[in-house]
Design a protein that fits this description.
3 copies of one chain form a homotrimer. Chain A is mainly alpha-helical and 419 residues long. Chain A has helices at residues 2-49, 55-81, 117-128, 130-138, 145-167, 172-176, 184-202, 222-242, 249-278, 283-297, 306-329, 338-356, 366-395, 401-406, 408-413, and strands at residues 209-210, 213-214. Chain A has 15 helices and 2 strands.
């Protein structure tokens, strides 16, 4: 009788574990779908911010990036980023394709009982393509399609997973105490460094920097850009709160709140700063302020208070018009402001972990954060510069002047965005 | 041994409570993200329904409203709407910023074990900005940006939380038996009354009401408007079913079903009525019919059958073309039909609680519903009229004739929606 | 004391069952909202792929289809598709409207404890309208509004539920071992057969097939089409993974992964094939490749590996440009490629179940799959052809030449898509 009692109680405890697992697993899958929406957000934003003659091209690139990102992450990237083995390494590879790791006899034995193997893969795979999408906007309106897709394939298959492994795959930065919840550095700065390498090697769009000063080249559709930013904000709830990697109520609730507050503060910061700087209610600055706030909070969304999140986002918002102006002074032409948003705010957000984050002894120290920023920046920029440089030598990366003038849509796609 | 058994069983029961809490909490957060999408929906809808020359302006306003709404609700609004203390009051304030209420030692002790403190805040905060977004559409194409943003700040920080507290903060209307699940009155009519005050004080757009009759001013993009309405519908599942404030399967399932049926019936009602009235298959009427159906079911979505929901929605659909015509006769110019959708259908939906709702003794009586409609209407309209009136005196609220003619985008933002 | 122990343990077990039910139920409702987004996706895609003069018309149709689909499924369709009674039948009807089936005393007793009655209805209802939306795109730019809506009403009320019952309502195909997880055949091919019947009876758009060859008629907005496809992809996660009909972690995770991989592979397959065939980076082919991959994986998403999903999707992608070319050779004019995407890839996906699927003895055999494809195809095509044919006789289904030339928007809706 007593044994029966114990059995019933244990049976109940096991059943609870399974249901708890089911909740966390389904949440991470829902978060995966939300992160997927970010690709739609990027496609809309970038399409909105380029000229009408290059819209089909940017849409085509962003579609193909998602496809390439998912497929290459399936074949190679995932096992490069999560190689298993001893923690603390610089590089590892667990083999091609997906395969249940040893010891994960059942789903619930994987990842400490919070989510299954396929969930782990598909959530991470959705992240992977993001780093290329960020580059896509910066090099828009002048890069050739084929070399760009080759760059993306290499960037997402090799560069992103290797530096990602340093932290999320229990690599050396993780052992050092570097902290980055959802990728201010690991995703956004990585994209930003790739973008910077690209625009240095490509040069600015014709007519952007003239003897008479900097000529603004307005995007062709503000509604499209606005829709894109709000879709990105929506998706970011999944990006940050899914990165809790469970449905833990305290952590997920906090992340939702801090993510929203930083985005709102980013809009406000950019609104006030750009109004003072340009005497103009500048929609694209407010939009990039939102994105900046989101990038900035991404590293520390689970370790700061709401008020700290507002402060982090506000500073991101202030940084946006300053960074846009700064890059323009350097004649680094970035049609969508990707370097300002993802690189500058990504670095700031990673530093903010050390200033505000609350992660316990030795985690998120200023030293660890700076080493992480520098190491990942150096690796990524070098990788991207080398690949873009090689492609420039081998096949050229920039479209002809005539093609740039008449638009990439007609030349590469034989179709117009609007008929 | 027996103690061990009891311990194991109790441990299991506690674990079940925690998992149950986790499920409800994650649902309300997902619903929060869905409500966020409504802001994108409103931005798209309103942008689609205005003329091309005012598109950037409406997008800018809607972006800033979300930012202002979230930030002010964080600092003041939330604690004004949920002051705690004795039930039945008219006004209360629990202090600036967020702070865990006394007695909520752990997350699970808060809100009866269904969701955490931060979840509560962020779900409610997403609602708050909605009331201003509704006003935004009605006053579009002629209001000055700065006074509008000041109005929004005051409306969302003070007016909305005070009347919200009367019901959702356990205030006097709640004690009276007034019922409003997700805000037919508390959100939508509130927005509608604000809109009405605004358009009375602003006057109609130039050229709308002429000696030769009412001149229709068609919106600049029907695809944008349609996307907006369908995004609103999507978000409304979170708005209504999240307002169950738990993942309770019976209630949430019912709300999903009634919400969808009312929206569908709203489309049908508006389609048939407008086809009979105007001899025309009118897309904007069908779209507003959907929104009307959604507003109408918002108060009673958890207390009616599917058939009753269809009836409620159908009447909303019929009301839409009638109300649009009615407001036009009064020369109250509302570019997006916000007063017809949110005020008229919001009132009808609140009355429908008394006609069809099934909430037990003394809850949702006709008397309580009418008192609620009247009290909240009187307070909100007075507040909005006073604020808009004061702003009109102090700084003017209407753009110049020349600015209205050439468009707000060029004057206030120095940029065009489409290049 | 011992009894108390047993009670506590049993109480815990019951509580676990309830929470497990709550998780599955909320997941299927969230999936419902995601499937709803597919209607927005279809509306955007089809609007993007038609000419500017017919945009309001296609938006109006897609809005009304959702409304008609939900309402008719409530009144008749659901009880036609799930009649209860003996398994293995060809036809049954459980009566008008919704009513809790006998024996389902409580929510948790319904559907084996995974979801409630209203959840079951609303999830299925969201699916129903899809079959008409597919037709809508194929017959665009030349069909009269009223006969089209009458066709939709009959198609979604009678044809779709009857063939749906054969499998999902435990009908004769289910007994035979036919397998179709989420509707490669039951939803997508059904839509495709209806589309085929429609375009045969309607004839091509004027000017499409000329003496000088096939004239491409490009869609009016590539951004709209792209947004549509990515929204469809997002919604498809709910469509396929919701069709697991529980939150079972293993199955839902697998479906998310296979769905994403097939879509990505579809894009790649269409990209490579169309680049080889047309010497052009064709955006609309890549977009339809994604949709083809999604349609193709829909039948077997829960029974194949990731690598098999990639193979299935890749073949879909290759099929798209071939099928588009094939239908064009037959002078079957399909403005959005609905027959290529939904009919061709739907058939292939249903066959793929037999080739790759892993469902145990006698389930998903090649014989069963082919019988299912043929039987549902024959019934649906006959039904659609008869209804369209009858409507053609009774009231005509094609707009006048003049109306086609000047556009349906001005003639049927007295408004332009863009002002």
């Amino acid at each position: 009788m007593e044994n029966a009692n114990i059995d019933a109680a244990n049976q109940a405890l096991n059943a609870v574990s399974e249901v708890g697992f089911t909740v966390s697993n389904i949440w991470i899958l829902i978060a995966t779908a939300m992160v997927f929406v970010m690709h739609l957000g990027f496609a809309s934003l970038e399409a909105g911010f380029v000229r009408q003659k290059n819209v089909v091209n940017i849409l085509f690139k962003n579609i193909m990036i998602v496809a390439i990102g998912l497929l290459s992450y399936y074949i190679i990237g995932f096992n490069l980023m999560y190689p298993g083995g001893e923690p603390g390494g610089f590089f590892g590879f667990a083999g091609f394709g997906l395969s249940m790791p040893d010891g994960a006899a059942g789903l619930i034995d994987y990842a400490g009982g919070a989510y299954g193997y396929h969930t782990d893969f598909i959530f991470q795979a959705m992240f992977a393509a993001t780093c290329c999408t960020i580059v896509s906007g910066a090099v828009a309106e002048r890069i050739k399609l084929m070399p760009f897709l080759i760059f993306c394939l290499l960037f997402v298959t090799l560069s992103y997973p290797i530096t990602g492994m340093w932290k999320w795959g229990q690599g050396w930065l993780d052992q050092l105490g570097f902290y980055d919840l959802a990728g201010s550095t690991l995703v956004h700065s990585v994209g930003g460094w790739g973008a910077l390498a690209g625009i240095i090697l490509l040069g600015p769009r014709s007519g952007k920097y003239t003897d008479k000063g900097i000529k603004p080249i307005p995007g062709h559709s503000m509604p499209l850009a606005t829709i894109g930013v709000l879709l990105l904000w929506f998706g970011w709830f999944g990006f940050n709160a899914g990165s809790v990697l469970s449905a833990d109520p305290g952590a997920v609730s906090l992340v939702f709140m801090t993510t929203a507050m930083a985005a709102a503060a980013g809009a406000l910061g950019a609104f006030v700063t750009s109004t003072l700087m340009f005497r103009n209610y500048d929609l694209s600055m407010a939009l990039n302020g939102i994105l900046g706030g989101l990038v900035g909070i991404t590293a520390s969304a689970d370790g700061v208070t709401g008020t700290e999140a507002i402060l982090i986002g506000l500073i991101c918002g202030v940084l946006i018009p300053l960074a846009v102006t700064f890059f323009d002074r350097l004649k680094l032409d970035d049609p969508v402001g990707a370097t300002s948003v993802h690189l500058v705010c990504g670095i700031w957000g990673t530093i903010a972990v050390a200033l505000f984050g609350n992660y316990g002894d030795g985690v998120g120290t200023m030293q660890a954060q700076l080493i992480g920023i520098a190491a990942i920046g150096a690796f990524t920029f070098t990788f991207a510069f080398a690949v873009f440089g090689l492609l420039k030598l081998l096949m050229g990366i920039r479209v002809s002047r005539e093609e740039e003038f008449s638009g990439l849509d007609i030349h590469e796609h034989h179709v117009k965005a609007y008929s």
